[in-house]
Design goal:
heterodimer, A: alpha+beta, 4-stranded antiparallel beta sheet, 11 helices, 14 strands, 28% strand, elongated, B: mainly alpha, two-stranded antiparallel ribbon, 2 strands, 61% helix, globular
Chain lengths: 328, 166
């Protein structure tokens, strides 16, 4: 037996196995390629496409945060697109005194209330209650405890929306929009919105917060023959777009699979991102008062085709994106 | 070239080649299970890659930054396994009596592996950084938050203790 000298203390060192080195290198290369992949041309185009939600009735432009919480109630979502909204147009809409929500409230019938969120001890328990596997990030910034988030589940809900052509014409007239017509045959048609259970997971660390919402995509059943681009064009006009822009953008969006997020230009910026190979939308909220200290927070929206995700927090956008990339 | 980060101008191909054995052996000093060693090494490099834009050259050498990530990965993993707690929580961990080695080990490796778990967790961590990762005392101080002189003192006493038990 040799003495315990410095050389002996190093005797546990050995070379990593070659196959392990190869596998890890390949894995990192794959991650590198994924990170380098930019948004597709189509989604770059979608980022500048302006649109709005005409059928569901929630026409009052929500803040980014409200949109993040409410988006699950409206559409079947495969893609996200941003609607950059001119703040002066919004102001004009507010100044018009038009109570859109009030005008449309009697056209929405709640069939099933989702109810208040229920707390669960773990994401697994929440997933069991919601009926799906809850995807969680495998990585969080150093110092964050990934093991003990707060978890809530919101139950399913449904509502029926009935189109009222006369009411819609009244709204257009109130805003002096005379160059678009309410589609014929719209009156009395109904759409049914069904939302699935949603799981909300919240992590907190030193005054910062990260929140993940995931749910199977909501389903909205439209009567066959509904002219969605025409309805969308009306919504776009209400939001303040010109006739040409509203028509062009309304025609370029797949309204059966795209959730359009109204983004006030003075409140937030946005860009298309790629999350786990899927196109998503990153929205960064500006600090209140337009301060110099950068962004106040961000939210990333994406869909895997079946499920929709929203990851928000006070972390920087890049860190949120990193977290989003690791969901599994 | 494996990749190059424009933000830091680091040659990650060189980083991978140079640092992989250090991280691998850091975990190898603490763990016997080869699958765990490889898993934690992979996790460290994946985290480093994802966090590469946060690496700031002026604040720390890259090796130190990477070892700090490895240290946190190890703490997270082993805390879950209840094999040890974070370094700062282990200041008062008593030194257990060295188990009697019932038969003479066939090699220095086996003997050292048998002795290391008899040490307090903090001492095990410092040994892994020093003799596994090959870090110097300054790097270890940066990773663990201990002072450089404290690192030197603890390591000296630890090696002396091992020699007594050898």
């Amino acid at each position: 037996m040799s003495a315990l000298d410095e050389k002996t203390l190093y005797c546990l060192r050995r070379s990593p196995p070659e196959d392990f080195k190869r596998t890890l290198r390949a894995s990192l290369l794959q991650q590198n390629a994924r990170a380098a992949a930019g948004p597709s041309r189509l989604m770059r185009f979608a980022a500048v496409v302006v649109a709005c939600i005409a059928l569901a009735g929630a026409f009052s432009v929500p803040s980014v945060r409200a949109a993040a919480r409410g988006f699950l109630d409206m559409f079947r979502v495969v893609h996200f697109a941003a609607l950059p909204v001119d703040s002066s147009s919004l102001q004009r809409l507010r100044d018009s005194g038009l109570n859109l929500q009030g005008l449309l409230s009697d056209q929405v019938q709640v069939l099933e209330k989702a109810g208040p969120p229920a707390s669960y001890p773990t994401p697994a328990a929440a997933g069991a209650a919601a009926g799906f596997h809850v995807e969680l990030p495998s990585w969080m910034p150093v110092g964050w405890d990934t093991e003990a988030p707060a978890v809530w589940v919101t139950g399913p809900g449904s509502a029926r929306i009935t189109a009222n052509a006369a009411r819609l014409a009244q709204i257009l007239a109130s805003l002096n929009i005379n160059d678009v017509a309410v589609p014929q045959g719209l009156d009395g048609r109904t759409a049914t919105v069904r939302t699935s259970p949603a799981v909300r997971v919240v992590w907190q660390h030193e005054g910062q917060r990260v929140e993940l919402v995931e749910s199977p995509s909501p389903q909205v059943d439209f009567p066959s023959g509904t002219d969605l681009p025409a309805l969308a064009e009306i919504g776009l006009r209400i939001m303040g777009l010109s006739r040409n822009d509203a028509y062009r953008f309304a025609q370029s969006i797949d309204w059966r699979s795209t959730l359009v997020m109204p983004i006030p230009a003075n409140v937030a910026s946005f860009r298309q991102v790629t999350v786990q190979g899927r196109s998503g939308l990153l929205v960064e909220a500006a600090r209140a008062g337009g301060g110099r200290r950068g962004k106040a927070g961000a939210v990333v929206f994406w869909s895997d085709g079946n499920r929709v995700f929203a990851l928000s927090g006070s972390l920087g956008a890049e860190q949120l994106l990193e977290i989003a990339q690791t969901l599994q | 070239m494996l990749w190059r980060s424009p933000a830091t101008e680091l040659d990650w191909n060189a980083v991978f080649t140079e640092q992989l054995p250090r991280v691998y052996n850091y975990f190898g000093y603490r763990l016997d299970n080869e699958a765990d060693i490889q898993e934690l090494t992979s996790r460290t490099f994946e985290k480093a890659w994802r966090a590469r834009h946060r690496y700031r050259r002026e604040l720390a050498g890259f090796a130190t930054w990477l070892l700090r990530i490895a240290h946190n990965v190890g703490v997270d993993h082993l805390r879950l396994a209840r094999e040890y707690a974070p370094l700062e929580a282990l200041e008062d961990t008593p030194v257990e009596g060295a188990p009697e080695i019932e038969h003479e080990r066939a090699s220095d490796v086996a003997r050292l592996r048998a002795l290391i778990p008899t040490l307090p967790m903090r001492e095990q961590e410092l040994l892994a950084l020093k003799y596994g990762a090959g870090a110097n005392n300054r790097e270890i101080a940066s990773v663990t938050g201990l002072s450089e002189s404290n690192v030197g003192t603890i390591l000296h006493r630890t090696v002396q203790l091992l020699r007594d038990r050898w």
